[in-house]
Amino acid sequence: MTALKGLLAACVTSLLCTASASAADTARSEPPNVILIMSDDQGWGDVGFNGNQRIQTPNLDSMASSGVRFDRFYAAAPLCSPTRGSCLTGRYPFRFGILAAHTSGMRVGEFTIAEMLKGRGYATGFFGKWHIGWVDPAEVAPRGHYSPPSHHGFGEVFATTSAVPTWDPCVTPEGWDSWGGEAGKPWKGGFPYLHNGQKATEHLSGDDSRVIMDRVIPFIEQHKEGPFFATVWFHAPHEPVVAGEEYKKLYAKSGAARQNYYGCITAMDEQVGRLRSKLRELGIEKDTVLFFCSDNGPADKLAKKGVASAGPFRGHKHTMYEGGLLVPACAEWPGVIKAGSSTDVRCSTVDYFPTIANIVGYSFSKSRSRPIDGIDLMPVIEGGIASRDRDLFFGFRRLHQGTDGKAIISGDFKLLKEANKDGAVRMYDLRSDPGEEQDLAQSMPDKFREMSEKLEALEASCLLSRDGADYSY
């Protein structure tokens, strides 16, 4: 077991970003613009391109059909903050130390996509829900710490620390009786958005996805000559999930919960369409690679009520099953990514960093060398890779609540430790049992032991990173 730990740790540590041959390498002489779009708590089954016939997502569907659809795309964790960090660093959450929401902030020792691209002359902008550190230095809260996007390579910043209502984001919605404030009063007592360090107080009413896109569009227009990097992380459809009347009317035959949830997603989709139209209006769509995914599976309550959907998969947000980890995802790059492409290779949010690094020709210097857990997605998109060449590791931990969920996928087998006080360990063959119905832990003891050792080794490697092995002093 010790030897296996050392071997796996060495393999992971050697995964530096080196250029790989792909169409992206020869498609253009100048580096492309890059846009990362992410929704919040949108289930695998909550888009038309994954088969949902009720929720209207024509722009995301068009994006998927114009590029590539990822049929097995995983968030690095079954909840928001850990996944967000993985998108920017290419590393597992257990490496950079954000194991749950509101428990930490991104360490400045981490190296993000924004820092990488800023160093290569990119204009960088962040827009939307940050949730990997406070954005307001005056904020006082019992958990987490101040670590805004501007500390991690972003020049233009329009951000909230965490969730806001998806309609009228500065006002607590009617009927809301949980965290955030009293109905009709300011959300969390004030204005949640900061724009370049100052509280934003104007043009904040109506659809929150539009409020965000109203700041993205000017950034793109200003930097249309490129290159630019925009990270657009919507709040939709995270609770409090509210839709405007015009969007609820689209689902008039549905109940109130569905009207708000479906309408909120359609409103967000409209802003994705607005973004794609702007790229075409400016004539830069072929110079821009655009990625979309959700940060985790559908919210617990809405999934259990049948409002939100993980598709055919078991589980939801906060669970280590496929429904908590698999998310809708697609990418578009006209002229480079073949329209109508799809892949069932297991991909992940940790893959964004190495993919973008290879597209722009970045490799780590010796002084910045560190474990990168993702793979370059371009060979996958182009069909040159039929299966992932390394394991995937997932984790979610709040020990004080008895939560310590972990999972590993190696080949077609998945070992998971449930994220609850029971902490049962189960094993599934995802090829023959994608719904995770038949636990093989008892019937395949040798495979169970092998998978357990791999999981232990990956967690040990992550612990070394978390304890500072990857940072210079």
From TrEMBL:
<keyword id="KW-0378">Hydrolase</keyword>
<dbReference type="InterPro" id="IPR017850">
    <property type="entry name" value="Alkaline_phosphatase_core_sf"/>
</dbReference>
<feature type="signal peptide">
    <location>
        <begin position="1"/>
        <end position="23"/>
    </location>
</feature>
<feature type="domain" description="Sulfatase N-terminal">
    <location>
        <begin position="32"/>
        <end position="362"/>
    </location>
</feature>
<dbReference type="InterPro" id="IPR050738">
    <property type="entry name" value="Sulfatase"/>
</dbReference>
<comment type="similarity">
    <text>Belongs to the sulfatase family.</text>
</comment>
<dbReference type="InterPro" id="IPR000917">
    <property type="entry name" value="Sulfatase_N"/>
</dbReference>
<dbReference type="Pfam" id="PF00884">
    <property type="entry name" value="Sulfatase"/>
</dbReference>
<keyword id="KW-0732">Signal</keyword>
<protein>
    <submittedName>
        <fullName>Arylsulfatase</fullName>
        <ecNumber>3.1.6.1</ecNumber>
    </submittedName>
</protein>
<dbReference type="GO" id="GO:0004065">
    <property type="term" value="F:arylsulfatase activity"/>
</dbReference>
